[in-house]
Design a protein that fits this description.
alpha/beta; Rossmann fold; eight-stranded mixed sheet; binds zinc ion
């Protein structure tokens, strides 16, 4: 049979001002039609897993469109219609079914639910009888629209997400079973009014490990697929909450029972997820400096892996206050990158880093810096899950300020591993402190350098202190904002 295969993976953060443009997407992983191949998004991706299973099952793969972006600002108006057009481009009457690799927590300025829009459009093209199976990030914000348009969902059950390939394989196996007529999928969703910061969404530790293992139990009991979705919390939208989506073979009641059971278990653990150990940035830095080198400082508020811009000056200012030596960090600041580039390697230059008012997480900070290295090219991630993925830096420079080395760059780049630092010629193992811009994922990305890390409780669009953010559209009541009786 002919199976349409596509991918669109991007997580948005509605607290990060501005927009992600089509050019931003093109500067990362972006391919159309015959550009695609099994390992287009890496050998560990859902795409690769699904592609392998479909291939081995003898189905003909019809590649449509694949894009992966680091998390970021909501899509600019007009980008989503173009994505829908690209996904649907090869759709015709000869397509028998479809597999899509989606993140599930994208937001656009002209649509709350891009994945719902994509799935709706695909469903309209394929009609009600041709199956659509979807794999998700477990941080997906699953919507009723998405559920109505698809036949089955799978999702990661690890964090850091190291079971991406498994998630795609599972989705493709389900699609093959539906195409063969051997299962008749029905979907149930259970919801509880809770969101939690992702720092304890850590599948190496309970309770997250125990909760995610309930998916395995449900499947061992005969359900087709179980996916607990602890949702990324920085999307201020009406359907925001933890959910569990279960696919069963014909038995909707069994699917609902399993989904409710798993969500009851998650609900009972909600308080634990607020107990992350985070230190004020000065204390986090001091703690890191007191440990063997290198130690990672995870900058919670500036986690580009949760959609922050990457423009925080919190750790820079803390380092300068403390007179810290051998700190390596990054700041997205196109103006500073341009000024350093103009000055040239070896030059001393006055830089204004950050654009915020005094007191803001990205407070403008004036420094006198030495330009150590210039760069304008692609970062190639070394993270075990995103190995080989590319992101263009635009103009970038490694600058040195009183013992702090900072990579200043123009475009959005993730700091889930040391690839950005290495691209600029820095040797991360030679530093005492390495800044990471994620809450959990960095642990896998920096593991080859160090297992020492501390989370800095910094403000910004990805702060772990959710009640400090200006939510206005979220559901009410919602834990931890209101006392909820469920
Ligand atoms: Zn995730």
């Amino acid at each position: 049979m002919r199976v349409l295969v596509g991918a669109f993976s991007m997580e948005s953060n509605t607290f990060a001002p501005g927009a992600t443009t089509l050019d931003d997407l093109r500067a990362q992983m972006f391919g159309v039609g015959s550009d695609l191949h099994r390992d287009f998004l890496g050998a560990e991706s859902e795409l690769a897993g699904a592609w392998s299973v479909l291939d081995a099952s003898g189905h003909e793969i019809v590649p449509s469109f694949a894009a992966w972006s680091g998390p970021g600002r909501p899509l600019a108006p007009g980008v989503l219609p173009e994505i829908v057009r690209l996904v649907l481009a090869p759709c015709d009457d000869t397509i028998d079914g479809a597999y899509l690799m989606l993140h599930g927590a994208c937001v656009a300025h002209d649509a709350d639910d891009p994945e719902g829009v994509i799935l709706d459009a695909l469903r309209e093209q394929l009609g009600p009888d041709r199956p659509i199976v979807v794999s998700l990030d477990c941080h997906a914000n699953l919507t009723r629209r998405m559920v109505a348009a698809a036949d089955a969902f799978t999702a990661y059950r690890t964090c850091p997400h190291i079971d991406t390939r498994r998630t795609g394989e599972q989705a493709a196996r389900i699609l093959c079973d539906i195409l063969a007529g051997s299962i008749r999928p029905v979907i149930a969703v259970a919801t509880r009014p809770m969101i939690t910061p992702p720092e304890l969404h850590d599948s190496t530790r309970d309770p997250f490990r125990r909760l995610m293992a309930l998916n395995d139990e449900a499947e061992a009991d005969g359900l087709v697929a179980s996916a607990l979705l602890p949702v990324q919390p920085w999307v201020d939208l009406p359907e925001l909450s933890w959910k569990c989506v279960v696919t069963a073979d014909g038995d909707a009641a069994a699917a609902q029972r399993a989904a409710e059971w798993i969500m009851d278990e998650a609900w009972s653990e909600r308080e634990v997820f607020l107990g992350g150990v985070r230190l004020p940035v000065d204390d986090a830095l001091a703690t890191a400096l007191a440990q063997a080198s290198p130690c990672v400082v995870a900058d919670a508020g500036d986690a580009t892996n949760g959609g922050s811009i990457g423009d925080s000056t919190e750790l820079l200012r803390a380092s300068l206050r403390a007179g810290a030596q051998a700190v390596l960090l990054s700041i997205r600041d196109a103006g500073a990158a341009q000024a350093a580039t103009r000055a040239g390697e070896g030059a001393t230059v006055e830089l204004m880093l950050g654009s915020g008012e005094p007191g803001a997480y990205n407070e403008r900070t004036n420094v006198t810096a030495t330009v150590k290295r210039l760069f304008d090219g692609d970062v190639v991630y070394t993270h075990p899950v995103n190995r080989g993925y590319r992101a263009a830096t635009g103009q970038a420079a490694l600058v040195s300020v009183d013992g702090v080395d900072a990579v200043v760059h123009s475009l959005s780049v993730g700091v889930i591993d040391p690839a950005l630092y290495e691209a600029l010629g820095a040797d991360p193992s030679a530093y005492a402190v390495l800044q990471a811009k994620s809450h959990i994922s960095f642990k896998a990305g920096f593991a080859h350098l160090t297992d020492r890390s501390v989370v800095a409780d910094t403000p910004g669009p990805t702060t772990c202190n959710l009640p400090t953010l200006p939510y206005s559209r979220r559901p009410r009541p919602l834990y931890p904002f209101e006392d909820v009786d469920y």
